[in-house]
Amino acid sequence: MEDQAQIDEFKARIDAGGKVEVGDWMPEDYRTRAIRFIEMHGNSELMGALPERDWILRAPSLRRKLALTAKIQDEVGHGQLLYRVAEDLGKPREAMLEDLIAGRTKFHNVFHYPTRTWADVAIIGWLVDAAAIVSQTALRSSSYAPYARTMTRICWEEAFHLKQGEDAVLTLMAGTERQKEMCQEALNRWWGPLMHMHGPNTPAERDGDLAWKIKTKCNYDLRQEFLATYIPKIREIGLEVPDPNMRHDQATGSWLYTEPDWEELKTVVRGAGPASQERLGFRRFNYEETRWVRDAVLGSASVAA
Amino acid sequence: MIDEKLVPLLMALADDELVLGYRDSEWTGIAPLLEEDVALSSMAQDEIGHARMFYEMVSGILDKSPDSIALGREPSGFHHCRLVERPRGDWAYSMARQFLYDAADGVRLEMLTRSTHKPLALGVAKVIREEKYHRMHGESWIGKLAHGTDESHRRLEAALLQLWPDLPGFFEPVEGEAELVKAGVLPEPFSALLPRWWQVVEPVLARHGLHGPNLGLNAFSDHSGYGGREGRHSEDFVKLWNEMTLVYGVDPEAVW
Amino acid sequence: MDTTVGDVYEVFRQEEQGDPFRHAGNLLAPDDDLALQYARDLYGRRHESVRLWVVRRAAIMEVKDADLLASQLDRTYREGAGYRITVEKRKALRARVAAERGEAK
Lengths: 305, 256, 105
Known about the structure:
The complex is a heterotrimer.
Chain A: H1 4-15, H2 28-53, H3 62-88, H4 93-101, H5 118-138, H6 145-173, H7 177-196, H8 208-211, H9 219-236, E1 247-249, E2 254-256, H10 262-272, H11 276-289, H12 291-298
Antiparallel strand pairs in A: 1-2
Helix pairs in contact in A: 2-3, 3-6, 5-6, 5-7, 5-9
Chain B: H1 7-25, H2 34-62, H3 66-71, H4 82-85, H5 91-112, H6 118-146, H7 150-163, H8 177-183, H9 193-207, H10 235-244
Chain C: E1 7-14, E2 22-29, H1 32-43, E3 51-56, H2 66-69, H3 85-104
């Protein structure tokens, strides 16, 4: 049984801007939420490697291939960093991987969709990463200090992801008619998932992660921040934002848009997105195929979930 | 020495690294351990980077962009050895190939530091420094798999046996080799490297109990695994090539 | 290492809550308990630390080979600075798009 006074004291410390380190006492609710939040982030990095991975072999120049390999390498590296943070909070890596491939835990909606052309890779690199960086930048002030420090490193590494994606988009938009079409088609395909990315506008008082300051900004603010920076950048290079209602409201200073279909988001993250099962199946297959390697180097402990 | 005569040599060096780099990058996102995933992606980048350096040298001679040299050829225009074009296989196959290839590449690079063609000798010196990590990594894995479990040992042996017939192909002569040797661009013919390669490989295999009648110089039949340097490749490479050139081939004139 | 006086311990210091731990220096101590106490005296007596990590030097491994840490060939494709060209590309494209839109009106 947890001592309410101890929980109150912890909460007061968090409210005052205090930080939590790995060995510190923390309420079970804090620990559970931190694990779930960080694990999903780690899952997303690992699953995020897959949509782009298909295009490593197909990248149209040596530099693009190098950049894409380096980017996906970073994503897997971030998965490693985040899993380490969650592992230290008490959930073993194998348990996280097994839960992921069994569909018991979640990963970000954007990685449930297929990548149809090279332009999808360009749009993901630029805008999906941009949207992710908006969230991740805010997480540098998470109350869980090992996570916050990891975010600092991740944001530093990701600066180039965004740039290589933007460079690929700009190159397509400055290219042939076919290239421009490819790029617009990709933006149209990714717009829905992009608008879903920061999640529905949950009231702050109902968001436990926010209460514990595991995350520090609400979904609405994150999406507004993304739109404010990127809508003008998208439009000025000749791309059309596929939402006729998208406009900046001078009166409130915020961006207005067609409300995304939140049912779709729920369905997708539950594992019923267009590429969800294929991706999970691929990860499951490779996890099983390489189990013997882990047994050989880590011993039988590696199979115990 | 006319620069054009160097092209087949540079292409063989570049294509070996390019194709192996593509194969290594197939582990990106799905390696057995997250840490290994990151390591393989690094090695893939190193190899593509080395290929790019050699293509840049060719680019200076032929006045074509490195990308059009790398991606704008038919499969028969590639000069890599058969060894590197095989699919990545299981982890044991990839690690064993990495180890055997790096040992071969190591003796080749050492020889090329003595080339009379200075830009080549200087470029190669940089490559050698980056390959150091690959050799450490490959040797670690040979030991890990040899002494891990019965299964890892069995898989490693099977991989080595499967790789063996392709190995002599690494040392297949390149077009115009005699002339390159005469000019000192190649300090020795490639065939002279084979015993030196074995001096590197043999102690490691022996240390891990991987010595056998089918894993030795005597197990090589003449010209086994040859053809790659002349542009004769397996179906495996054609499949890879189709992927490699999928986007580039949409419009080779376009900027991507 | 001079075993007559004890072991060398390396000390890492956290200045403010949430900060990364930075190497502060090291100390000699006869055992782990005293190493922790000395760390407090040597690296925390001016309230300059909110936490200290103390680790035996013998437990630290090192990678320092430049061949492993500094790449020899171009790696600008994996740095933000390798894409400065996007600023120019965006400017050119923006001008072109603006001109096209102007003509369409």
